[in-house]
Every structure is written in C-alpha cells, then in structure tokens.
UniProtKB/TrEMBL annotation:
One of its GO terms (biological process) is regulation of transcription by RNA polymerase II. It comes from Absidia repens. It is found in: Nucleus. The keyword ATP-binding does not apply. Belongs to the Mediator complex subunit 22 family. GO terms for cellular component: mediator complex. GO terms for molecular function: transcription coregulator activity. This is Mediator complex subunit 22. Keywords: Nucleus, Transcription, Transcription regulation. Pfam families: Med22 (PF06179).
Amino acid sequence: MNNASQQSATRPMLQHMEDQYNKRIDDDITKLVDCFSDIIKIGEVRSSESLLGLIKELKQYLLLNDTKTLTSLTEQRSTALTTQTAEIKTTIQDLRKEVTAAIYDMESVYYRSLTD
C-alpha cells in the first residue's frame, strides 16, 4: 500500500510539472511567433523600399537609354524646326517683295513729283 500511496502522491506532482512545462512551451512559442511576425513586417518594409528603389532605377534607365524614343523625339523636333524655318523664310521673302514694291511705288511718286 505504501507503493500505491507513493504513486498517487507523485501523480499530481508530475501533472503539475507537466502543466508548467506546457505553459512554458506555450509562452516560448508565442514569443517566437511574435518575433517572426516582427521579422516579416520588417522584411515587407525593406522589400517595399527595395522595390521602390528598383522602380526608380528602371525609370531612370529607360529615360536615359531609350534611344528609340529619344531618336523619335529628336526627329520630330527637327522636323518641326525645319518646317518653322521654311515658313519664316517664305514670310521674309514675301515681306521683301512687298517692301521692294513699296519702295518702287515711293520712288515713282517721288520722281514724278520732281518732273512735274
């Protein structure tokens, strides 16, 4: 009977120790989950910052090294300037003709007034 009473006395003590170990394990697992959550949050922030930096670099690369677009824009600007230059030259020639005609008319009137 002594052996049976000893087993019944140790059983609650073992149960209590098991409960304490389970509680410690639960607390440690909760702490690990919290730490991993923090690590994931920090990783997400760093990933977002990294992606934004990558997007910025790609945009700069595209702007600086997109020769097809740069060539197209340069050609469009050149064509527009050539057209504008031709229009200005035509306008100047028309003005020159008008001024020449006006001078001729004024000279005619002047020389007529001298002969009259």
